Amino acid sequence: HVQLVESGGGSVQAGGSLRLSCAVSGYTYGGFCMGWFRQAPGKEREGVAPFDKDGDTTYADSVKGRFTISQDNAKNMLYLEMNSLKPEDTAMYYCATVNSGGNCYSLSTLDFGYWGQGTQVTVS
Fold first, then answer.
1. Residue 79 predicted with pLDDT over 80
2. In the chain, count of helices (H) and strands (E)?
3. 2 exposed, middle or buried (CB, 10 Å; 0-12, 13-18, 19+)?
4. CB neighbours of 56 closer than 8 A, spacing ≥ 6?
5. Of 25, 79, 91, 103, which has the highest C-beta tally within 10 A?
6. CA 19, 23, 25 angle in degrees (round to 5)?
């Protein structure tokens, strides 16, 4: 049974930084692909960045140059380092695992199956 637990969210002023963490259990960690998504109030959930088993990734245009995704296989953790935060980054942030046969780089929620409960990020 796959479980994902996000943490590290909070309230920060514009220009500040946060580091989100996702603890993973019950998943063949490092074998496939995981990703970070976010959902702002009244908007659809959108992809932020995936991270595949080879360490390759891509970023949504809105976060390029400011966010960095990484993982620690030994600790079964996925991270999202967020710098130069903007008010438009305010959202609930989720980590997720890609579905079997899913496209790791699509940044589409349709390709990802297991989800955490989310952690709130508020930028003012």
1. yes
2. 0, 10
3. middle
4. none
5. 91
6. 165
